[in-house]
C-alpha cells in the first residue's frame, strides 16, 4: 500500500512507473503523478496534519515522496495575512495575502517545488541537479543543492537583476547566463537534459516538481480554518502554480479535509509585456500564441508557457478570469502593498495586486466575498524594479538644529501613519 501508484499521461491516460520521466511516449502529453486517494483518506486527517511541524511536509501523503523527505524541511507554511488596510484601500470586505515572499530558504514560492523535486532527485540517485530559470528557481535549486551536497548547474537569462544572480551564485553552483530570454534558456536546457542525464527539476523531474506547488493551496485552506476562499488571484509564468492550486482544493475535498462544496474562482495575473495566457483567455481560444517578453516582471516573463493550456482550463473550469497590467501599474502595486501591509514583494507580486485591483474595479470580483492574493516572491531581490520610483532619504548633518529645520519644512506634509485612503 502506498500513497502514490505511478505516473499517467494527462492527455491519453497511458500509465508509467515512478521514474524521471515527463512526456508520454504515445502522445507527447505531460505526465502526472497518480495517487491512491482512498488510501490517503484513511491516513490523513485535519488532526494528523495539525500535529506535524509547520512546513509543507505536513501534507506529505499528497506529495510524491517515498519515506522521509530529505531537503526543504523548513519550506512552506508561510503566513496567510489578513490584509485589512489593503482591503480598505481596494474597497473589499475580506482580503488575505498568502505571503511566500518569506518562504524558506530563498524567499519565493519556488522553495515548495524544489523541496519536492530535489527530495525526489536524491531518491532516484542523481548526483547533479539543474534547472532553467527566470531567477527564483535558480536561487532555490542552488540553495537546496548546497544543503544536500549535490553538484548543481543553473541556467538563467544573462540580464537578470543582481539580487537574483547573487541569490544563486552565493550558494556555489555552476551558474550559466544565457544571452537570450527564458524561452531560449529552456530550449537549450531540454537539449542538455537529454544529453547529460542530470536531474533538471523543471524538465525531467517536472511531474514531481509541479506537485510541490499544491502545498500553496493546501495551506490557504488550512489557514482559513479548513475552508476555501471564494476568489484567488495567482500569477502565471510557465503555468505551474495556478492549476496546482486548483488541484489542491479538489484533492482536499476528495480526501475529506474540506466539507465546503464550493469551487473557488481562480484568476490568472500576467504583465502586459508578457501575457500570452491572458490573450488566449480574452479571445476565448485554447491556442496560446507565444510572445517575446518585455516587462520588469522578469520572474514571470515566459513567452511560451509549458502549462499555459492547463492554466486556461483551470481558470475556465473554476468560473474565474484574468487580466494583464502595465509595468507602471506593477510598480504602483508594489508600493501599495508595502505601504498598506508592510510586505515588500517583487514585480510578480505587484502584478497580482494590480490585477486584483483591476478585477475588483471591473466588478468581476464582488466586494463582499473572500479574496486571496498570491504573493510569490520577495522585493529585496529586485531593487532595480522600484529604483527611481521611491523617495530618497533626506541627508543632514548630525546636529539637532539641522533636524529641527528639516522637521519644520516637513511638518505640513508628514502624517503618520499614512491613511490607506490617501495612498494613490
Ligand atoms: C515562478 C514564479 C511564478 C509563477 O510561475 P509558474 O511557472 O506559473 O508556476 C510566480 N511568481 C514568482 C515570483 C515566480 O518566481
Ligand atoms: Zn499520452
How would you describe this structure in keywords?
alpha/beta, 16 helices, binds zinc ion, 424 residues, four-stranded parallel sheet, Rossmann fold, 4 domains, six-stranded mixed sheet, binds pyridoxal-5'-phosphate
List the helices and strands and how they pair.
Layout: E1 4-9, E2 15-16, E3 31-35, H1 37-43, H2 46-50, E4 80-82, H3 84-90, E5 94-99, H4 110-124, E6 128-132, H5 136-148, E7 151-157, H6 162-169, E8 174-178, H7 182-196, E9 199-200, H8 206-211, H9 214-223, E10 231-235, H10 241-254, E11 265-271, H11 276-283, H12 308-318, E12 322-325, H13 327-341, H14 347-361, E13 370-375, H15 383-386, H16 400-410
**Main β-sheet description:** 6 strands, mixed
The total domain count is 4
Number of strands: 13
pLDDT under 50 segments (min length 5)? none
Fraction of helical residues: 25-40%
The global form is: globular
Class based on secondary structure composition and strand pairing:
alpha/beta
CATH topology of the largest domain: Rossmann fold
Mean pLDDT: 96
| Radius of gyration from CA coordinates | 22 Å
Helix run count: 16
Bound small molecules, by name, code or SMILES, are: pyridoxal-5'-phosphate, zinc ion
Strand content: 5-15%
Question: What is the CATH class name of the largest domain?
Answer: Alpha Beta
Q: Specify the CATH architecture of the largest domain.
A: 3-Layer(aba) Sandwich
* Topology as a string of helices (H) and strands (E): EEEHHEHEHEHEHEHEHHEHEHHEHHEHH
Trace the largest sheet across and list its strands.
4-5-13-10-11-12
